[in-house]
Every structure is written in structure tokens, then in C-alpha cells.
Amino acid sequence: MNVESNLPTGLHQRILDNLSHAVLMFDTTLRLVFINPAGEMLFAISASRLLGLSAEDILPGGSPLLAALKRGLQSSHPITEYEVQLSLPNQHTLITDCTVTPLDTHPGDAGLLVELRPLDHQRRVAREEQQIARQQTFRTLVRGLAHEIKNPLGGLRGAAQLLERELPAAELKEYTAIIIGEADRLRNLVDHLLGPNTIAHKESLNIHQVLEHIRQLVSTELPAGIHIHTDYDPSIPHITGDRDQLIQAVLNVVRNAVQALEDNGEITLRTRARRQFTIGSRQHRLVCQISIIDNGPGIPEKLVENIFFPMVSGRADGTGLGLSIAQSLINQHDGLITCESRPGHTRFCLLLPLEQGSPSAEKTTVTERNPP
User: Fold this and answer.
1) Three-class secondary structure of residue 282 per DSSP
2) What is the rounded (10 degree) CA torsion for 40, 38, 340, 368?
3) In terms of DSSP bridges, do strands 239-241 and 112-118 run parallel, antiparallel, or are they unpaired?
4) Confidence (pLDDT) at 12
5) Which residues of the chain have a pLDDT value below 50?
6) What CATH class has 3-120?
7) DSSP SS3 for 243
8) How confident is the model over 187-221, as pLDDT tens digits?
9) What is the spatial distance between Cα 41 and Cα 365, in angstroms, rounded to a whole number?
10) What CA–CA distance (Å, rounded) separates 256 from 67?
11) Cα 282 from Cα 29, distance rounded (Å)
12) Superfamily name with CATH number, domain 203-353
């Protein structure tokens, strides 16, 4: 048996490295001899720790995938299993389609090629594409509506100013002042609905220095019962972004978490690097994932899908603009904010593409601190 002769090299290696789904290769004893970066991300374990392990060491004994591998050794035809529940070494489970292909291209060569296509990935991509399309449609609608509102507001304000000059009594001018003030308030509200309209001034940034700045800002206004923990990945390279816009976006999300906790709870700021990660319909070689996690009561299910639209808030006194503005700012960085929530666990993920190989792609120096 010489399965090593089937291992990918050169162009084939680059192709496999850039695939978004996991590809693994086993020899006839079901020993893992190859795994691509997407497979490392799936199992959340590096190739150096996985290569050489048997399938029984990687997968639970009753795993449908393990059974499919054993059937593949006895078959000369590819086997495809749909919606297989895969239990991972990190205690997570996911639903995936898998294809097991016997390798017998040369006499004496044998082994199995395994492709894993997680269905949650496909669902996430479809959900993100829908979210991006809805937000773009909404922004187009709001821009048109804002134009129709601001024109008559300007005329109303101008007429009130002219009337104010002609009024003889000072007490009557109080009413024109109210008209002018309310017109200005409506104009500001429309501007907030439109979101940020400034051009991003991007530069090389250490994302952990940005997060530490935000942590210090928020810590000064936290109730005594709320604590912020950090869990940083120090290997994340510098990102290219607008510092002020990123601070505003993350700060809006963190303050939203603080408000959800009221006076007691935990917030975790976590960073991770994601390889071959898809944001919407676009795949990126490397993505910085910033997770803001709280253990509050959670967001009502009916609000989660619309939480990033203006005027949508789970609090009676909320304006519903903070998360909408945060999403717009992250969109300007070709990124996206996602949300998942259940009672006791709400996580906002800010996804920012990273440019690999940039001169500033150096390791961060912020000390990593793990939550208890």
C-alpha cells in the first residue's frame, strides 16, 4: 500500500487548501494521512495533531461517518450519506453531507477520500445573503424616503424662520421656535436612519488594542454586578480599517449587551481567526471573528431576524439605532454582524476580512486573558 503517492502536491494542494468544505484522506487502516485547512477548522484541531490518528480516535464509535468509512473500504464505488450527524472532538455536533470515495488509481495504491459539506454552513451562507439583500433593499427604501421627508422639512423650517421675523410679540415666537426645533429633530432622526455617511479612512490596526480601548471605556460606566472578560487569539494579524468606525461599531454592540444584562451578568470579548470563511456569498482566505457574548435573558426569537433594522428594539426606551449603525459601519469594511440568542447566551459575531501577507501582518502584543 502506497497511499502517500496519492497525496496532493503543487497546484492540487493549492486547490484543496482553498476549498470551503473539508477534505480528508485515509489509508487502508483508516489512518488519517491528509486534511485540508477547512477540515482543520471543522474539527477545531490542527493537522499536526490529527495526522496519523485512526478514524476511531477522531470519531466516536457509533458515528455514521465511521460506519461509512468502513463500508468504503469494502466498496469500489463512492458512497454518499446525507444529513449525517457528526460529533466532533470539541463536543460540538453538526449535520453534514459526506462522500467517501475509494482511491485505487494505481495498482497497490488504496485509501479513502472523504468530503464533508456541513449543512449549517450552507444555511448560514443563505441566511447571510438574505440578510445582506434585505438590508440593501431597506437602505435604498430609506434613502428615497429620507429625500421625500427632508425636502418639505426644509421648507417648513424656512417658513417658520420667516414667520418668526414678522411676529410682533416675543411670546408668539416660542411657537415658531418649537416648529424649528421639531423640524431639526426630525431631520436628525432621518440622518440617523440613513446611517453613517462618512468615508472610512482605513489604516493598519491591532484589533486587540481597539477592543481594549472599548473595554476600558465601558468599564468606567459598568454597574458593580457586571463583569467583562477577554479571550483573545494573539495570532490574529493586523486588520485594515477605520479605527473610529470600528470603535463605534463594537461599542454599540457592547453597550447593547450591558443594557440587556441590566445590573448583573457576564460579558466576554473573544477573537478568533477563521480560515477560508464565507461572508455572504464571498469567500475570504482569512477572517477576524470578534464575538461579544453575554449571559443575559436573550433576545426574543421574533426580533432576532430584524434586530439590525432601524427602530427595532427589545427595550421600551430603546431607539433601535445602535445595532443598525454598527451593521452599517461593519458593512463599510466588507464585513457583517450576525446574532444568535437563547436565554442565558447571546452572541454577536463581527466578521471582518483580513488581508493575508500584508506588511503589518504581525502578531499582537495584548496579553491573552481567558474567562473563568
Assistant:
1) strand
2) 50
3) unpaired
4) 76
5) 1-3, 107, 356-372
6) alpha beta
7) helix
8) 777 776 666 666 678 899 999 999 999 999 999 88
9) 24
10) 46
11) 38
12) Histidine kinase-like ATPase, C-terminal domain (3.30.565.10)
